[in-house]
Amino acid sequence: MLKGFNSLLMSRLGPIITGGVVGLLAALLVRWGNPGNMGICVACFTRDIAGALGLHRAAVVQYLRPEIAGFILGSFVSALVYREYVPRSGSAPVIRFFLGMFAMIGALVFLGCPWRAYLRLAGGDWNAIAGIAGLVAGIGIGIVFLWKGFSLGRSYEAPKGTGYFMPVAAIALLVLVIMAPAFGKDGTGPIFFSESGPGSAHAPIIISLIVGLLVGWMAQRSRFCTVGAIRDLVMVRDSHLFNGVLAFIVIAFATNIVIGKFHPGFEGQPIAHTNTLWNFMGMVLSGLAFTLAGGCPGRQLIMSGEGDGDAAVFVFGMLVGAAVSHNFSLASSGAGPAAFGPSATIVGLVFCLAVGLIMRQRLN
User: Fold this and answer.
1) Angle at 39 between CA 36 and CA 44, to 5 degrees
2) Can you state the angle between helices 297-306 and 93-110, rounded to 10 degrees?
3) pLDDT at position 361, please?
4) CA pair distance 347, 341, nearest whole angstrom
5) Torsion angles phi and psi, residue 86, rounded to 5
6) 159 found inside a domain
7) Hey, which residues does 88 pair with through a beta bridge?
8) pLDDT, tens digit, 9 for 90 and up, residues 171-205
């Protein structure tokens, strides 16, 4: 049975099945306790982890999200079982780090990664339309660079042990969220947990972990990627991955209707703002950064579980980007963009455009 399921995930139906399952589970996670329209958001969850580790002190967004650990471990186990665990690294790691950082800054100006943009749309948040338009625009700019020969260079096979770091880190996060240790003299920190706000809203740990493991496994087998879907559709007219995105949105929408979580409109949406310009521009930055790095944030986590050290560097760039966003007033809130969010978005776009121009290879 498992062999047949694996064959199905590896077929052209794989992204559709994975997208549908992710859409279903993401909507249900909100029912089970996760924040509104944020059943699964890699950017938001990474931000919460950064806060829980004390990298920023925004008290309302601090929690060690088990879903993230599950993505990594599910991918790792899948890669081991199917002999696709191949540690590799060496493809412009410093650039990838900063791409991850700016991708996170753009996502927090919008308030969500590509996965959450689609979930917000499926929940009736029409502000997500501007974000998705920005995402497509950013991917489009990245595609132009790819057509012009952009490349971050090849990666090289690394010792097998180097690929174990991310799975071990994921296990450490699970231990910390279960034990919730307090090492400080006042009985708090260095692990912090929100007592109010989005960080305090979460599904039971075991449910979050099971969902993460399943999604990590399925995404590793099917190569599900929300950014690669649009890239492939435009560049090679291949709808293989894009059909998975459509399934993701449709199933999440249907599930929200059934469980009473569909609330259409612009105003009063959970953890969202109505500034159309910066919803758009934030996701232009994220879409461009994700395209140059080779995949959406979920795909980066999955690849890091497979042993891809370059993807792991990108993930750590996202973690630092989350800390920078909250420590330097870049992250938006329900009231709108923060004081320096728009400026940081422009800086990020300049950086990404410079990388796109500089890292072009000579085409024969």
Assistant:
1) 85
2) 140
3) 76
4) 10
5) -135, 95
6) yes
7) 157, 308
8) 999 999 998 877 666 666 678 999 999 999 999 99
- Asked whether residue 188 is assigned to any structural domain, the reply reads yes
The yes-or-no verdict on residue 20 having pLDDT over 60 is yes
- Domain contains 364: no
How does DSSP classify residue 362? P
pLDDT at 364 over 50: no
Tens digit of each residue's pLDDT (9 = 90 or more) over 330-344: 999 999 999 999 999
Q: CA 119, 137, 227: angle at the middle one, nearest 5?
A: 50
For residues 76 and 83, what is the distance between their CA atoms, to the nearest angstrom? 10
Kindly report the pTM of this predicted structure: 0.96
* Average pLDDT, rounded, for the chain: 95
CA distance 34 to 27: 9
Q: How many domains does the chain have?
A: 1
Residue 181, token pair as written in the block: 């240790």
Numbers of helices and strands, H then E, in the chain: 15, 2
CA 60, 97, 225, 149 dihedral sign is positive
Structure tokens at 121: 């749309």
Is 71:298 a contact under the CB 8 Å cutoff? yes
Distances (CA, A) of 332 to 104, 111, 136, 300, 320: 12, 7, 21, 24, 17
Q: Is residue 363 part of a domain?
A: no
Residue range of the domain that includes 167: 2-358
Q: What percent of the chain is predicted at pLDDT more than 90? A: 92
Residues facing residue 157 across a β-bridge: 88
CA distance 94 to 88: 15
